Every structure is written in C-alpha cells, then in structure tokens.
Amino acid sequence: MPSSTPTPSLDFWYEFASTYSYLAAQRIEAAAEEAGVVVTWRPFLLGPIFAAQGWNTSPFNLYPAKGRYMWRDMERLAGAMGVPLRRPSPFPQNGLLAARLALIGAEAGWIAPFTRAVYTAEFGEGRDISKPETLSAVLAGLGLDPAPLIARARADEAVKNRLKIETEQAQRLGLFGAPSFVTADGELFWGNDRLEAALAWAARAPGPSRRG
Predict the structure, then answer these.
(1) 3-state secondary structure at position 121
(2) pLDDT in tens, 34-64
(3) Strand residues in 124-183 grouped as ranges (E)
(4) What are phi and psi of 10, to 5 degrees?
C-alpha cells in the first residue's frame, strides 16, 4: 500500500500582549487553508523571554521611536485589513489569565475563536484583558459558561504548568518575539509579515512538529 503523506503543519506562537499577533490571529486560518497547512495555536508568555534579555517591559516602550512607528504601522495594517484598532491602556497588557484560558480552549476545541475574540477586545476595543470581567464577556460571547472556566484557569495546577512548559519550549526554540511561526522541520519565522513565507515553507516540509 502507498504510504500516506503527512499533512503540512505550522505552530503559531503568540502572546496576548503582542500587537502584531492580533493581526496574525485574524488572518492565519484563511491563509493556512489556502496553503493547505494545519495550524496549531500555541499561546505563551514573552515576559520571561524579555527578562532574560534584561527588559522589564515591551521593547516598544523601551524604545519610544520604535513604539511610535509600531502604532502607526498598526494603523496602516489594520486599516488595510478592515479590522478595528484601539490602543489599550496599560500597554502591554497582562495576558496570563487569557493564555491559561486559551490552553483550556485548546483541549476543548475553542482556542482559535477565543484567541481572536480576546485580541479584538484588547486591540479592537481597547479593553483590559487582565480583568476577569473582560474575559468573562469574551467567553459568554462564545456561548461558554465563564465562571467555571475562569476558576479553573486560576486554580488548576495542570493548566498553570502547561503554560510554563509552553513558555519554556518557546525559549528552547529560540523565540524572541511574537507572533512566531515554527514549521514541522523547526524553521522559525518571526512577525505577521512572515506568515506567508512560513506557510509556504511548511507546505514544502511536512512532518511532525517539534513539541514541548
């Protein structure tokens, strides 16, 4: 019998505080479907990675000129995509609880719509995603019961450890920012503007992804 060909795959690594991840999250599914690539959504935390570089906040705050450029670039890109953009305060946002919820969503099959909805609340509406009430509204909007999910995200040690493991894996893979895309053969692409290149590479190099 002929051997089956593995489906091309791509890991989408993102941080809820990341502006450019907002844009990538809104368009990755359609782009991946067109390329014939299966996407795995992988939330992680940039805080430990930035801390290892001696940063205590986003580089867009540490370097004001870079920050001003980023927000203007986001205005252009969001406008071209037809998605709303509103700068949240504070920036960067604390996405810890959202990331834990996303990992719960990965188990249950709602990680993608949840991630997009959180990003829309944050960067489309300027809401504070560190607040449970913001995330409760997002979950309710997806037809989910917020209270038990948020309680689990706060208390379940397995969920907490999974996020820690994902972040450690991101560090081992050499991730230094978000969004990042890692192909099945371990090729790393960084930035919303590298999504198409990552998908094209993934389509040529099917195989098992490097997992944590």
Answers:
(1) helix
(2) 999 999 999 999 998 888 777 778 888 788 9
(3) 180-183
(4) -145, 130
